[in-house]
């Protein structure tokens, strides 16, 4: 017989508003106060378990104990992820769909993405030379929108670029249903889903012939475990599950630039292009800066873990931000210090900006390698290919905004390419 211990508990009525008010550090603060990787609380009008730290993350990714179906709040689905996509699937259905995503992530495909990205960066930088100043975050969103669509085989006319970038960004910028701009998010999702759905129809009836290695082709023709094509709506949701988050990497690029400006001693270490130091810098940006605050799942059964009883069908949140800032895992967790990755003992459950565990067998982010690649290319651009001035601006970021960004969105003036000779290659 298992011995039960009382799970640490946050008392009081519903804490949802407090979570929003305190923002990213909410769960870590409680875990530290109670000295625990798991505690019970009440959020979204229901009892919930909060898991964090290495052991909490390991438990969260045990698919025999947790499922994703109905875990994510509907308002978030209606803007951020869409409905019936890979995020909401479990078991064999998830495995099949996730394989479809991971089949796009070969080194060759990542190289193709890199080449597109470098070209678009370079073209934009040329344009910036004639501008007084630029807002880097806005510019990078557009660069990434062009890159993502072309890489995914999604045709995009020049006159559609601005609107498409704005609509894609609305999906991750206007996710919080308490914000007055939430409706813009739902509107953008409807527009984008209709657009991609038409493209899937055109691929299927032969009017449009994207390259066979592209997302649009692969997803349009993917057959599931029982040999069925995806519904057009679902195929559209999944194509957007590739394009949207590639554009969202712009948030990390804004933070990369913020780090270069605020930590000049660390920036100085980026002497040798492509060196390990670049990797450490990118990893530390992903660890240090807030992006995904938490992830939700639901228990599939009653079970006991570390002596604590868990009840079936209970909402469970994984504290992503707090695990990346957990002082039990990271020395001087609140310092930006890329060199910590020099002797980092790699674990799939301690460094989880894009989820933990396995990419194929679990829900860990399908685009983690793309993200790292894109960040490396952009870091190289900022350090080695551009010169710019940094006018006085507000570089702070607000820990109660989901997702958050440096307030100024990073303003550069006097932008020049340091290697304009590359022009002839474009
Ligand atoms: C911008 C930086 C990114 C961050 C911070 C991020 C973060 C995350 C997180 C936290 C999850 C959930 C993990 C879980 O459910 O346990 C996730 C899932 C996912 N991400 Fe990302 N992601 C990023 C970029 C990308 C990119 C570039 C792509 C695609 C090209 C992508 C595609 C996906 C997909 C398809 C899933 C669902 C995986 C599944 O449910 O099995 N993400 N991401």
Automatic annotation (TrEMBL):
Example GO biological process: sterol metabolic process
GO molecular function term, any single one: heme binding
InterPro entries: Cyt_P450, Cyt_P450_E_grp-I, Cyt_P450_sf
Keywords: Heme, Iron, Metal-binding, Monooxygenase, Oxidoreductase
Pfam families: p450
Residues given in the record as heme binding sites: 365
Needed co-factor(s): heme
Taxonomy, superkingdom: Bacteria
Membrane-crossing residue ranges in chain numbering: none
UniProt KW DNA damage keyword: no
Family statement: Belongs to the cytochrome P450 family.
Stated name of the protein: Fatty-acid peroxygenase
């Amino acid at each position: 017989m298992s011995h039960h211990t009382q799970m640490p508990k946050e008392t009081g009525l519903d804490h949802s508003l407090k979570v929003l008010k305190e923002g990213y550090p909410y769960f870590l603060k409680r875990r530290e106060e109670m000295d625990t990787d798991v505690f019970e609380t009440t959020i979204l009008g229901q009892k919930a378990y909060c898991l964090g730290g290495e052991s909490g993350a390991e438990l969260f990714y045990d698919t025999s104990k947790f499922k994703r179906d109905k875990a994510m709040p509907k308002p978030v689905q209606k803007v951020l992820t869409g409905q019936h996509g890979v995020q909401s699937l479990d078991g064999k259905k998830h495995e099949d769909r996730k394989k479809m995503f991971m089949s796009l992530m070969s080194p060759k495909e990542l190289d193709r993405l890199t080449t597109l990205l470098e070209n678009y960066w370079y073209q934009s930088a040329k344009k910036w030379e004639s501008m007084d100043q630029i807002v880097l975050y806005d510019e990078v969103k557009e660069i990434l929108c062009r890159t993502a669509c072309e890489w995914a085989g999604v045709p995009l006319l020049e006159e559609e670029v601005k609107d498409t970038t704005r609509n894609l960004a609305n999906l991750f910028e206007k996710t919080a249903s308490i914000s007055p701009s939430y409706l813009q998010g739902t509107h953008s999702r409807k527009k984008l889903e209709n657009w991609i759905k038409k493209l899937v129809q055109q691929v299927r009836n032969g009017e449009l012939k994207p390259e066979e290695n592209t997302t649009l082709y692969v997803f349009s023709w993917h057959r599931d475990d029982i040999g069925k094509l995806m519904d057009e709506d679902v195929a559209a949701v999944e194509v957007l599950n590739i394009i949207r988050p590639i554009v969202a990497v712009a948030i990390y690029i804004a933070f990369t630039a913020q780090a270069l400006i605020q930590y000049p001693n660390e920036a100085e270490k980026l002497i040798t292009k492509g060196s390990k130091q670049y990797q450490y810098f990118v990893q530390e940006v992903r660890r240090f800066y807030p992006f995904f605050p938490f992830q939700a799942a639901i228990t599939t059964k009653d079970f006991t873990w570390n002596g604590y009883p868990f009840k079936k069908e209970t909402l469970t949140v994984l504290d992503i931000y707090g695990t990346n800032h957990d002082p039990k895992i990271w020395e001087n967790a609140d310092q930006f210090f890329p060199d910590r990755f020099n002797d980092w003992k790699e674990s799939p459950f301690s460094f989880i900006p894009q989820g933990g565990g396995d990419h194929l067998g679990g829900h860990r982010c399908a685009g983690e390698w793309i993200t790292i690649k894109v960040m490396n290319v952009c870091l190289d651009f900022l350090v080695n290919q551009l010169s710019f001035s940094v006018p006085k601006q507000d570089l702070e970021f607000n820990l109660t905004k989901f997702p958050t960004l440096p307030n100024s969105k990073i303003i550069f003036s006097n932008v020049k390419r340091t290697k304009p000779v590359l022009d002839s290659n474009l």
